Amino acid sequence: MTTLKMTVNTTVKKGHISPLIYGSFAEHLGRCIYDGIYVGDNSDIPDTDGIRNDIVEALKAIKLPVLRWPGGCFADEYHWRDGIGDKSKRKKMINTHWGMVIDDNSFGTHEFLRLCELIGCEPYIAGNVGSGTVREMAEWVEYLNCAAPTSVVLERAANGRIEPWKVKYFGIGNENWACGGNMRPEYYADLYRRYAVYCRNYGSGRLYKIACGPSSHDYNWTDKLMESITATKDCSAISLHHYCLMTNVRATELSSTDYAKTIAKAQAMDKIIEKHWEIMGKYDPDRRIKLVVDEWGTWYRSEPGTHPSFLHQQNTMTDAIVAAGTLDIFNNKCNIVDMANIAQTVNVLQSVILTSGKQLIKTPTYHVFDIYKEHQNNMLLESSCENRIFNSDEEIYAVSHSASLKPDGSVFLTLSNADPDKAYETDINLIGNNYDNISAEILVSDNYLSHNTFTEPEKIKKQTYTQYKLKNNRLLLTLPACSVVGIALK
Ligand code: AHR
């Protein structure tokens, strides 16, 4: 077995790992909100105010820190006033981006914020720039956050909510370079400057305003956007969207070449972030503006028998490797990435959960989030690895890793092995404090296409792992092919 030398320096803290890196995204798309999360008032699926209890429990268990809503492309055709008040009178609209189906607006602002309350996570709301007015956005923020008895606030109270919700994270548009209005960066930047002015701060809270940033490699968008908006001193972050687009193939049918391409696209995240960050630094040397990767994940061909625009896909060990590698990148770039939101939460794209009627399954991606949640709020530690490229065509690294220090002084280390055929022995030199207590968990399969189904819901799940030796601060751990491991050291 090839040995890979690694070091973790437990005395060198590199930055704070925001829990928000472990966020998710729920759009009015296919069966994510309706059916997946929200079953309404007359369902026999156990729910609280129409919100599935099993979904809430599962998301609480991974300590979901933040949820983005209502889109996505849907955000720029969503008019929030259509989704408040008496449900029987709410406007029925066509979801033009996602299948031309009718959305009866029964899941609106109050329902979303109730969902966040039940989960115990921060809400992140994306406002409508593409087809909404400045006044509409301004009044939404007022409805969310103002305590003074204005007409808008009295309307909120009449709809059952007296206290403001104090929403902090607010996006000014989504993908305005495409579905959000087909804008040029200069034009969007002007709109950002205008809309942002009227998204007011109420009380002592300050809105964390997120501008629509680039898609993957669109460095020109970042350049033009930053050149214009930096002067306003009214932007906390710009968003970045990066998908592993493999739309010609289904999740469960990836060939070994497809697998390699998917992993290569996921690993590209590292350089993409660095390049955008470098450009951002030209205009913002004080680094006041951060990156929020508010859409990321795999995107395959939809499952047979489902509406192609519902973006319903299975979730395999490939997705687990993508998730682990990406979360390690975000951890290691925690001074750049303030928040990230996997796309999406339930039944759409790289979901952590799939549902079918009353049934719910936790995907391999869910189990990665479950293992990695231990990094939330820790201090990033310096770590390094003499890595291996296992596929010369795609230049893919076998091992991803990140290490962090918990407030109680213990260390948490994650590793993943993207090599589908080969195990590695990691020889980890722990520099600094002494650790003699170790425990580990693993997610592993001998096949990157392995996944959970409604008939076999627990085929892939995390397990206790013991293939290691710890002596004199040297940890020898076997990392099986296609595996994800979390290690706690005390
Ligand atoms: O997540 C699906 C879609 O991908 C979102 O609606 C859009 O923002 C992106 O193109």
Summary tags:
single chain, 490 residues, alpha/beta, Immunoglobulin-like, TIM Barrel, 2 domains, 10-stranded mixed sheet, 8-stranded parallel β-barrel, 10 helices, binds alpha-L-arabinofuranose
Description:
Strand 24 (468-471) and strand 25 form a beta hairpin. The chain has 10 helices and 26 strands. The strands form 6 sheets. The protein has a 10-stranded mixed beta sheet, covered by helices on one side. Strands 2-5-8-9-10-11-12-13 form an 8-stranded parallel beta barrel, surrounded by 5 helices. Helix 3 (134-145) crosses helix 4 (151-158) and helix 9 (317-332) packs parallel to helix 10 (364-372). The protein folds into 2 domains: 2-11 and 381-489, Golgi alpha-mannosidase II (Immunoglobulin-like, Sandwich), CATH 2.60.40.1180; 19-376, Glycosidases (TIM Barrel). It is α/β, with parallel strands linked by helices. Bound molecules: alpha-L-arabinofuranose. Alpha-L-arabinofuranose binds at residues 27, 71-73, 174-175, 295, 343-344, 349.
List the helices and strands and how they pair.
Blueprint: E1 2-16, E2 23-25, E3 47-48, E4 51-52, H1 53-61, E5 66-69, E6 93-95, E7 101-103, H2 109-119, E8 122-127, H3 134-145, H4 151-158, E9 169-172, H5 185-198, E10 208-211, H6 219-229, E11 237-250, H7 256-267, H8 269-283, E12 290-301, H9 317-332, E13 337-343, E14 353-356, E15 359-362, H10 364-372, E16 379-385, E17 389-391, E18 396-397, E19 399-405, E20 411-417, E21 424-431, E22 438-444, E23 463-465, E24 468-471, E25 474-479, E26 483-489
Parallel strand pairs: 1-21, 2-5, 2-13, 5-8, 8-9, 9-10, 10-11, 11-12, 12-13
Antiparallel strand pairs: 1-16, 3-4, 6-7, 14-15, 16-19, 17-18, 19-20, 20-26, 21-25, 22-23, 22-26, 24-25
This protein binds alpha-L-arabinofuranose.
Alpha-L-arabinofuranose binds at residues 27, 71-73, 174-175, 295, 343-344, 349.
